[in-house]
Structures are given as structure tokens and as C-alpha cells.
Amino acid sequence: MTTADKATSGKATANKAPVDQESVGTEVDLEHCAEALKALGDPIRLKIVQHLRRGPCNVGDLGTAIELPTVTVSHHLGILYHAGIVARSKRGRFVVYSLQKAVFVKTNRCVEQLDLHC
User: Fold this and answer.
1) Helices within the chain (DSSP H only)
2) What is the pLDDT of residues 90-106, one digit of tens each?
3) Which fold has domain 23-114?
């Protein structure tokens, strides 16, 4: 690339149209939706979500309930946490996991449904 090309490419970048803030928000929302859907795309994580619908649980008890090693459950809870599907809180020396409040909502027919805000 010549010096003239570098100068021209620099000007082209500087003269780009302003970024549409509405489309940026949409892309961020789509990224969030994709991450949440990917997190729920594993049978083990679906089993964890199903169990957490009954109420908060620590990793050890959750592992016992769904018959999986604690390390496996912990790994999958981390994915669900980063996707915004579960929350965690410290109770003594235990970390207790629960579903985010807005993950399941009641519909008009009084049925709970998953809401990823997508």
C-alpha cells in the first residue's frame, strides 16, 4: 500500500456515515438473544432450568437432583449465568442459583412461558 493509498483509506474511514444508534441496539439485542438461545440449546442446561423452576438451589443439591457431577452442573450454571438466565447469590459458604425473575412470565391464560426478551 502506498502513502497515497493510506491517506485515502484514512479519509474514507473518517468520512463514513454516522452509526445508526437504533441498529446498534438491535445488533446488541440479537447478540443477547443468540447467546440465550445457545445457552438453552443443551439438554443438561434445559434440565437445570426445569429444576430451578421449583426454586433456588446450590450446585451440590442440584447435581444430586439431576444426577450429574457437581463440576458438570457448575460448568453449565456458569453458561446460564453469563447468558442472563440464572442469578446467583451467596448464602454462607454456598452459592445458590435461581432463575432470573423475568425468565418465566405468566401469560393471559395463567400459563408460565419462557421470555428471553427477544
Assistant:
1) 3-14, 21-39, 43-52, 59-66, 70-82
2) 999 999 999 987 776 66
3) Arc Repressor Mutant, subunit A (1.10.10)
